[in-house]
Amino acid sequence: MAGRIPQSFIDDLLDRLDIVEVIDRRVSLKKSGRNFTACCPFHEEKTPSFSVNQEKQFYYCFGCGAGGNALGFIMDYERMDFPRAVEVLADTAGLEVPREASAFQEEPQQKKNIYTMLEKCADFYREQLKRNPQKQRAVDYLRGRGLSGEIARDFDIGYAPPGWDNLLKHLGLNQEDKQLLIDGGMLIEKEEDNKLYDRFRDRIIFPIRDNRGRIIAFGGRVLGDDKPKYLNSPETPVFHKSKELYGLYQSRKANRKLERLLIVEGYMDVVALAQHGVTWAAATLGTATSTEHLKRVFRQCPEVVFCFDGDEAGRKAAKRALESALPAMEDGRQARFLFLPQGEDPDSMVRSIGASDFIRMVDKAEPLEDYLFNSQAEGLELGSLDGRARLSTLAAPLIDQLPDGVFKALMMSSLAERTGLSQEKLTQILQRHQINKQPEPAPDKPEVVATREISPEPRQRAPRFNQQQDSTRDPILYAIALLLHEPKAASHVATPSALSRSEDNNAPLLAAMLELLHKRPDSTSAMLIGHWYGEAWGETLQQLLQLEQFIPGSDIELELKETLQHLERKYHQDQLGDQVDKLLTKDYAQLSDDEKQELKRLLSQKHDL
């Protein structure tokens, strides 16, 4: 098995390459001021919003949010995994990729082993569909649904034969392999006797791929009378069903520039549509469409069409989809809602009317703006004052979930026209709604406040990242931004002791950056992003680098030093405040002389800080 690629080699490789040259070989860049621009290769657009910063060796798309260094670009553009992308860039630089042995497997390597095992599982299921003596039931089912062998190959469809241990016998050859099959969700272990058996039995198998094409899970459609009818892999280290869509990878592969995505309910809908030439469909995996799903989709195409059955269940699902879509509807994005006749699904519909008529149905799907107003107006008499008033109270809070921008402003204007209310009045309705949503504050303790000489500020736990947050109120995020813009500034400061004890979600990232930069003082911004590429910390760094409120002044070293000093001081103030609060849990008159003396000392120290 190949060893781990040394981080020092990756850093050196990124230092040797120019991201402008790497990207320009694949996407035509034009000089624009200090940066280079192009139409984004990751989503459809007419006005260039893709920017490459040669100084920082970093790219960012202001339209879809894609960003990273040269290595990340190769991974996403060429749809390669990390090791293969390193090899491609190393070949460009004329370098050979070194490998190092490791005394233990880090989590990324463990995940890689699961990916490899799941690929072997897919090979096994594909082979069973070709050669298993009981394959005919599966073959007849697929043919009966109108699927060709070519489509089955495109989606890697397979067959899990009847029996409790077919996969186990084929791939569980040793304890390590058995554990990988368990970790990957392919085997189930009985608690009462610790026996292992196959999760998928007597089912058509649909491999589920992530956006890089790696198999991360499976779905199975039963052939007999077993329940459930559809079965998915469980949550695993490589599979989180709330983040993945079945068929999205194949849609991207079939359409170099994906213009729209049709979101349906099942695997067979996706495959049947592809069979008829509708190669831009994807399905959720047993969950409702989430905002996270949609943000990922909108990075790759500008339009989403939700497809639902026309029954009551379909209408309820559509309302849930609307609520998930609203926070993702930035300007330039579009969502539509398509309701099929009752008793029909996309599979039956496309077979009945053909691809051309089906696509015409999709083209006529109800835009989000119309669906929002129409769904909220159901059962209301809009000719009456009461009906219009109720529409305003129902629709305004939904519109408020939209990101600020032109679309949100137009939606508020449209609501004003439909209800006859001024936008000022609608704003007041929203304010009342927001106040009603807020939890009631805890009751004050006047006896405590009366005895305080200094009122300590409450300690707040910052979110991991908030684009609206004022940088001056979050010294940790600002320190991270300073290091990102000028990594060499780390050599002039020490790591604050407060970081190891801070409850702030971003404190571990700042501590890790300082530790890395103290060890590797020549690191660049691109190296920092590359070090945590594909992880939550990497996403935080990418966003920070682009936000104006986190762009530092001219003297970064001084700003960093003062920010870390403020951080240390604030931590000690909070600690003293906690001790003061502890003493003041009882009335001042009830404190002993020693406690009163201690309270005075603490308040004095806090004041001095």
And the CATH topology of the largest domain? DNA primase DNAg catalytic core, N-terminal domain
Tally of domains: 5
The share of residues in extended strands comes to 5-15%
> Which radius of gyration do the C-alpha atoms yield?
29 Å
Query: What is the mean predicted local confidence, pLDDT?
Result: 82
In terms of quaternary structure, what is this? single chain
Shape: globular
Helix content: 40-55%
CATH architecture label of the largest domain: Alpha-Beta Complex
Structure notes:
The strands form 4 sheets. Strands 1-2-3-4-5 form a 5-stranded antiparallel beta sheet, sandwiched between helices. Strands 13-12-14-15-16 form a 5-stranded mixed beta sheet, sandwiched between helices. The longest helix has 28 residues, at 556-583. The chain folds into 5 domains: 7-93, Zinc finger, CHC2-typedomain (DNA Primase, Chain A, Alpha-Beta Complex), CATH 3.90.580.10; 107-232, Alpha-Beta Complex (DNA primase DNAg catalytic core, N-terminal domain); 248-372, Dna Topoisomerase Vi A Subunit, Chain: A, domain 2, CATH 3.40.1360; 382-437, Pheromone ER-1; 471-596, Orthogonal Bundle (DNAb Helicase, Chain A), CATH 1.10.860. The radius of gyration is 29 Å and the shape is globular. Strand 10 (215-222) and strand 11 form a beta hairpin. The protein has 609 residues and is α+β, with helices and mostly antiparallel strands. Mean pLDDT is 82; it is low at 102-107 and 438-473.
Short précis:
It comes from Oceanicoccus sagamiensis. With 609 residues, the chain is α+β, with helices and mostly antiparallel strands.
